[in-house]
Amino acid sequence: MIKQELEKLIAEKRASIGVIGLGYVGLPLIVEFGLKGFKGIGFEVDKKKADDINAGRSYIVDVSDENVKKCVDAGKLTATTDFSKLADCDVIIICVPTPLRKTKDPDMSYIIAAGEEIQKYMRRGQLVILESTTYPGTTDEVLQPMFEEKGFKLDEDFLLAFSPERVDPGNPQFQTHNIPKVVGGVTKDSTEVASLLYGQIVENVYSVSSARVAEACKLWENTFRAINIGMANEMAKVCNALGIDTWEVVRAAATKPFGFMPFYPGPGIGGHCIPLDPHYLSWKARQHGFDSQFITLAEQINSSMPRYVAGLVRDALNDAERSVKASKILILGVAYKKDIDDMRESPALSIIDLLRSRGADIVYHDPFVPEVTFDHAYTIGDGEPLQNTELTDELISGSDCVIICTDHSNVDYHRVCELAPLIVDTRNALNEDIRSGSKAKIVRL
Ligand code: SAJ
Q1: pTM listed for this prediction
Q2: pLDDT tens digits for range 20-64
Q3: Which position among 239, 273, 405, 417 bears the catalytic label?
Q4: What are the residues whose beta carbons fall under 8 Å from the beta carbon of 330, sequence distance 6 or more?
Q5: Catalytic residue status for 217
Q6: How far, in Å, is the centroid of ligand 1 from the Cα of 378?
Q7: 220 C-alpha to ligand 1 centroid (Å)
Q8: N or C: which end of the chain has fewer CB within 10 A?
Q9: Which atom of ligand 1 lies closest to the CA of 272?
Q10: Domains of the chain, with CATH numbers?
Q11: Which pLDDT value is given to residue 50?
């Protein structure tokens, strides 16, 4: 049985770690192993990424060049596009994207491609772990047969587990080493060896009884967020209809020291996790004849927010006896959440598209985002790319409406309030102190 062999290699830090996919999950992971003395081989389809890493350069915000260089110089990290080197790895961890198709069905092509590469070079004695967020059953229904059809037997020739990634890019408090790691093997041996492995780099490993439990755990975490954000967005619509300050209500509710967790309304939800992950769960549930209504409803509410915001803008301009058509609109902040540069599924894309389609003249300012393109998969949006515009006094005062889509910290909102005639604030960026001194008419979610 290979369990003992792998346990010895791991305990003695002689296990070589292969990571397929060196993005915001894979790169921090392989560097963490390298810093702890394990030899890592990173597998990428993007040669530029591999070259950057071998040159000691990081392209991921949470990973320093210094740490990449330290691992490379110590011979603990090489990156390659040559997947035949998978045969040299005792452990192989898959960290590839799991996007949705246009039909909102899971796109398993990246996981299958990684599995096929592993299958091609598999040898006796390897532990394979999937980290990519996916529906419960992927590890044992998709990956396990790929390896068994080559004649490899689980527990005798290979081990197989799932461990959800919990990377929160840019989070200063929680990094790889101090985020509890859930680990579930397809077999008991797989769980135990995978848990031993992660225990080398993570302070708290939480083992569960199967890969499916671990897969479902991750989806529960992120579906929880999507549904609660959906509730916050619906509460915003109700509060607006009742003339109640939404943000004051949720701040008051958050004083409850138990049984409540604040979520906040916004212009919609963006990112590569929350808008997508719940659909992996609902898709799998549908395969078993179950329609997960909460996920569907949350998605309907969250994806209605860009149109709701465009309606607030239309009504506010109308009150100023202006039409959306030919209005000069400045979008302040376009990234999908504050203080990052990530545009994936950003609701700002939909808001820009909706207003541009009604003839508005749109410019944006976002200190993190030099250019906005409309080739994103799941948001409304097409048309010409936009370039970041400098936030001058003239730009603000010359706008008919300023929409705060993302509340980046490094914007002077006092100045915006002094100069703008009309502001639609979708993020409560303008607190009471700023609002009190404002000459602008301010509309809030
Ligand atoms: N959002 C709201 N209201 C909220 C919270 C978020 O409108 O109360 C919006 C954000 O503006 C954004 C979207 O939802 O557009 C997603 O925001 P998020 O805070 O969930 O951030 P993400 O997408 O970076 O989610 C990641 C996830 N991490 C992993 O999957 C490993 C998520 O599980 C984390 O909880 C989240 O980071 C986090 O807490 O930062």
Answers
A1: 0.94
A2: 999 999 999 999 999 999 999 999 999 999 999 999 999 998 899
A3: 273
A4: 363, 364, 365, 389, 395, 396, 399, 401, 402, 403, 420
A5: no
A6: 17
A7: 14
A8: N
A9: 23
A10: 2-210 (3.40.50.720), 241-444 (3.40.50.720)
A11: 98
